Amino acid sequence: MLKAAAVNALNNTNVFAIARVAAHFTDVLARSDLQREGAGLVERLAAVPQGGSEKRPVRRTSLAAKFAHFVIDGDRFPIYDQYAVRMVAHHLGIARSPLEISYIEFARRFDELALSLGMTTNRRRLDRYLWVQGQFESWRKGIAETSSELRPFFERGERPLS
Known about the structure:
Blueprint: H1 2-10, H2 18-30, H3 39-46, H4 61-72, H5 82-92, H6 97-101, H7 103-116, H8 124-141, H9 151-155
Helix pairs in contact: 1-2, 1-4, 2-3, 3-4, 5-7, 5-8
């Protein structure tokens, strides 16, 4: 519960049903071989059963991916958020929509990008780059709220790699 709540709070995933989500995560993890699991684990974590006042099932892919990244293995589970999706698609020259279908497809494309860059280990660096570059592109275009940590750098004219 504490790990899910911490990942949720520190990464602004805005999941309010954190107790139900954490119980689901605990159940999924108890039935999983964490040494062997791949992107399918994130899909199973994201499939939180409907509850509370929800009118329809809500997939918690961003929180599930961030949880797997920070709690299980940052090199094996890339972070899935709007910035990463946008930047992976941009760097591979593909439409974003196929990446937004599933975490499995996103992770496959993330691996494709990492391998094209010669990154066989330490993929956390690519995750950080995608987040910073995605934040910068959003800030430059004025299309999304920029991280309060990065905004001062962008406003001073400091730019990430292009």
